[in-house]
Task: inverse folding
């Protein structure tokens, strides 16, 4: 009888031992994450340096981890070592027994390496090979398009874009925009004749494409065909008064070249007849009057302008300038300077990524988005 007290003590000890064992197990499990997991966590945390080290450690411990190799190479390419990335991808491709989807993934990464290395022909060949096995892969097409763009092969680029538009149901407008963009880029590189041909084709299909009209006008102007350029610019104002601010300076320059500066007045008045409150036109005509010393006309115009646009600093400044000119105030030059500074701050800003440009551009060079540039008034 006397020995029974020992049983609860033994059971109690066993229970405590079990608890300690479970605690140790739990702790160990928490500590023991693999280098691969660590690498992925670092990636999520944005610590690329640490991720790189852990992916390297992973492939050293487990050379079968293809995924770790791919991620390691991607990091290396991103950190400006595309040759090393390419080396890894080639090493992987030499392996036997890889699934076809894995091979395609590695090939796609190889094409990206080639692109960064400016080996455009090799990138093109790789992507064409991929497209043979996966005809509907938009990612492949996008990279092929980028490759053609980078290598300035604009005919191929347009052809590719056309295929994409058909396959992935892009709107017609997107294709026109791409062609206009291609023409603009080709012209920048000196391929003016080709650009004219493309722009004409676009305008034949879509006569109201504003960027096509702008660039066609610019090319006519640079060829010395000032009359044709002016006609194209005027057409833009007729189509879309919002875009008038882009073409006013161009038309003014054209008139100035022909010694017909005063014709600018007619252009402004034409617009105001149709859109009496148009902001940019009112400002431009008032500025014109001021330059010509026609102060009373400027005063009258700005009085109405300020009534319609009471929040516009530029309008108020011009009104003040007019009043000061009329009163022959000594500070006119100082105010003129302020207005000039204000005007210089006018910029086009991409409404998607915020990057800025002094001139209107159809496609943002930063985020590659289309028609996102809007005029921003000086601050
Ligand atoms: Zn942008």
Result:
């Amino acid at each position: 009888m006397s020995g029974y007290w020992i049983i609860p003590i033994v059971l109690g000890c066993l229970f405590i031992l079990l608890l300690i064992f479970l605690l140790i197990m739990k702790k160990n499990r928490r500590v023991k994450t693999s280098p691969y997991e660590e690498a992925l966590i670092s990636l999520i945390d944005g610590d690329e340096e640490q991720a790189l080290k852990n992916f390297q450690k992973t492939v050293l411990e487990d050379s079968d981890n293809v995924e770790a190799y791919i991620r390691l190479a991607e990091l290396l390419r991103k950190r400006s070592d595309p040759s090393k990335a390419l080396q890894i991808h080639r090493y992987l491709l030499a392996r036997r027994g890889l699934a076809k989807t894995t091979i395609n993934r590695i090939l796609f990464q190889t094409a990206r390496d080639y692109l960064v290395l400016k080996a455009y022909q090799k990138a093109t060949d790789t992507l064409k090979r991929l497209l043979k096995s996966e005809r509907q892969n938009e990612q492949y097409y996008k990279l092929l398009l980028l490759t053609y763009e980078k290598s300035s092969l604009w005919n191929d680029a347009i052809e590719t874009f056309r295929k994409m538009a058909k396959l992935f149901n892009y709107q017609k407008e997107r294709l026109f925009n791409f062609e206009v963009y291609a023409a603009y880029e080709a012209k920048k590189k000196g391929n003016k004749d080709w650009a004219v041909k493309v722009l004409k084709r676009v305008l034949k299909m879509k006569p109201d494409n504003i960027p096509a009209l702008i660039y066609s006008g610019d090319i006519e102007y640079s060829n010395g065909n000032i009359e044709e350029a002016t006609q194209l610019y005027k057409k833009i104002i007729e189509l879309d008064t919002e875009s008038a601010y882009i073409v006013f300076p161009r038309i003014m320059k054209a008139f100035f070249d022909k010694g017909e500066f005063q014709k600018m007045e007619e252009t402004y008045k034409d617009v105001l007849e149709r859109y009496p409150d148009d902001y940019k036109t009112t400002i431009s005509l008032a500025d014109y009057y001021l330059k010509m010393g026609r102060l009373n006309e400027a005063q009258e115009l700005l009085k109405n302008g300020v009534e319609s646009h009471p929040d516009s600093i530029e309008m108020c400044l011009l009104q003040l300038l007019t009043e000061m000119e009329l009163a022959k105030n000594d500070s006119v030059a100082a105010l003129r300077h302020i207005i000039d500074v204000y005007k210089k701050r006018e910029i086009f800003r991409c409404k998607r990524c915020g990057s800025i440009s002094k001139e209107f551009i159809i496609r943002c060079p930063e985020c590659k988005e289309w028609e996102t540039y809007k005029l921003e008034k000086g601050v």
Observations:
- The longest helix spans residues 6-31.
